[in-house]
Backbone:
């Protein structure tokens, strides 16, 4: 990608911890669009205002969209096929 | 209990500012005392939240600059012109004031001495902050992992922790610091004077055959250029961990 | 209320006349750059704008053909759902009425499509009757890629997510279907004056 107006999943760490109740930046996930696997920290994140769009680093498919609704933050799942939090000691 | 520990990390806490350290004309470190701090790993960050009296809130994330030390958490903040939060943190917050934060956050962009090495760290501008926590952990009794830290700054005035890094470079066997100044150099400078590129990384980073653990942090463009170059030099993508701070010049 | 940060003032207050600022909005002089994806790079010789869907025959314009159409200078206020409002923004573009002039249709809805895959849906009557443009200049200068250039849809009477950046065409439809943000919790219509931000508002 030539533009640099994105960050990565590290920036979503607090939000993901809120949503899932545990550390998630080192959780692995699978893309339904291209089949690749990535840790959440390496997702390509567009903090776009209405919401944060988390895209696959391999194929740019939208994996999740985090929207700050009045009722509370919500994660919409799009092309994220599976998610596996990291085991902790 | 593990659940209570996570709840603690998710809950907003009020910290006291106990010290301020001027790092550069634009950068200040804030030393915070956080009453129920559970400790943290080098590389983790905190979310900071400001609330105006009309209820308006703004949140930002800041990397922790120091290894775990009881209730002490130090963040290093760069003042962004026209920023909403950083001018307040750098200019307005005084010792004795309070700051809301939560954390620590992060499970991937972390390194502890027990994780091994050798370690290659590449910092663009304020991307140095979380890497400095790793360096400080290594030096403060963290074993003998060989470390090379490459720091890209625009000018000597903008080089964060310059004094401390100079001392480390001289005194610490096994920790090397390489600086490049991309816009203005000190008088008599014989070191690098350009942006980090593949050729520089080939000279400075551990060879790929050493299987170093690489951490790259800074503006998005810097991080992606460096990570791509490391892969071109033969480093495995899974050995490279990255943290992007956003567009350059923000 | 809980904790207050001593001395934190938030955003600087910019004054505006009564009645100009929709409920819940604040006036800014900035023009924040926000996108859902990477900025597409569209060479002008490859750029096309198409009208498709419920039409007898799809139409397409090249960049030269768009430039040859009568254009308008419009000054409008724009309102983002994230609460910023920018007053008196100056644009130049081709009215959607001009593009749909010779397109008989019974369709009631459009889906705007963008290079890069973004979509947003609107009633056809909200992009006609002088309410919408395909805009290619802002503030007297060619529209920059980060703000949607070479051309974006401009529909100022609705929240600005409806003004699709990098617009590539309008698909006319009999049935309404949610576009990108409409499918991720935002209002299907988006009238700032009725504060229709979220689904269910």
Residues:
């Amino acid at each position: 990608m030539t533009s640099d107006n994105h960050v990565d999943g590290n920036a979503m760490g607090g939000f993901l911890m809120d949503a899932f109740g545990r550390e998630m930046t080192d959780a692995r996930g699978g893309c339904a669009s291209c089949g690749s696997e990535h840790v959440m920290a390496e997702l390509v994140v567009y903090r776009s205002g209405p919401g944060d769009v988390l895209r696959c680093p391999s194929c740019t498919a939208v994996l999740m969209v985090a929207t700050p609704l009045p009722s509370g933050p919500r994660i919409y799942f799009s092309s994220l096929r599976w998610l596996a939090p990291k085991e902790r000691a | 209990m593990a659940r209570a520990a996570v709840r603690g990390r998710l809950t907003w806490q009020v910290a006291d500012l106990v010290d301020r350290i001027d790092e550069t004309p634009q950068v200040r470190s804030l030393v915070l005392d956080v009453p129920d701090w559970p400790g943290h790993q080098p590389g983790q960050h905190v979310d900071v939240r400001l609330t105006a009296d009309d209820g308006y809130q703004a949140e930002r994330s800041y990397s922790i600059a120091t290894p775990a030390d009881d209730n002490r958490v130090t963040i290093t903040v760069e003042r962004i012109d026209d920023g909403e939060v950083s001018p307040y943190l750098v200019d307005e917050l005084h010792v004795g004031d309070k700051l809301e934060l939560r954390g620590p956050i992060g499970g991937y962009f972390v390194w502890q001495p027990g994780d091994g090495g050798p370690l290659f760290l590449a910092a663009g501008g304020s991307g140095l902050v979380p890497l400095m926590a790793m360096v400080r952990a290594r030096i403060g009794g963290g074993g003998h992992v060989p470390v090379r830290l490459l720091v890209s700054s625009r000018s000597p005035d903008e080089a964060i922790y310059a004094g401390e890094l100079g001392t480390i470079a001289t005194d610490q066997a096994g920790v090397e610091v390489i600086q490049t100044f991309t816009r203005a150099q000190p008088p008599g400078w014989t070191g690098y004077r350009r942006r980090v590129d593949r050729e520089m990384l080939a000279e400075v980073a551990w060879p790929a055959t050493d299987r170093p653990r690489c951490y790259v942090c800074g503006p998005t463009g810097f991080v992606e250029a460096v990570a791509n170059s490391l892969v071109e030099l033969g480093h495995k993508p899974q050995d490279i961990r990255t943290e992007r701070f956003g567009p350059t010049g923000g | 209320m809980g904790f207050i940060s001593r001395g934190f003032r938030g955003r600087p207050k910019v004054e505006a006349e009564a009645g100009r600022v929709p409920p819940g909005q604040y006036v800014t002089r900035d023009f924040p750059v926000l996108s859902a994806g990477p900025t597409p790079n569209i060479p002008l010789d490859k750029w096309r704008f198409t009208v498709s869907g419920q039409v007898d025959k799809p139409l397409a314009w090249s960049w030269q053909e768009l430039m040859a159409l009568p254009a308008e200078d419009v000054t409008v206020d724009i309102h983002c759902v994230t609460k910023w409002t920018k007053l008196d923004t100056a644009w130049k573009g081709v009215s959607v009425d001009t593009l749909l002039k010779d397109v008989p249709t019974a369709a009631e809805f459009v889906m705007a499509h963008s290079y890069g895959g973004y979509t947003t849906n609107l009633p056809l009557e909200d992009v006609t009757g002088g309410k919408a443009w395909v805009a290619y200049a802002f503030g007297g200068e060619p529209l920059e890629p980060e703000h949607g250039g070479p051309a974006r849809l401009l529909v100022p009477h609705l929240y600005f997510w409806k003004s699709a950046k990098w617009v590539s065409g309008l698909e006319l439809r009999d049935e309404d279907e949610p576009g990108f943000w409409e499918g991720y919790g935002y209002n299907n219509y988006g009238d700032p004056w009725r504060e229709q931000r979220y689904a269910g508002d």
User: Anything to note?
Assistant: Residues 95 and 151 of chain C are 12 Å apart (CA to CA). Helices of chain C lie at 63-68, 96-99. DSSP finds two helices and eleven strands in chain C.
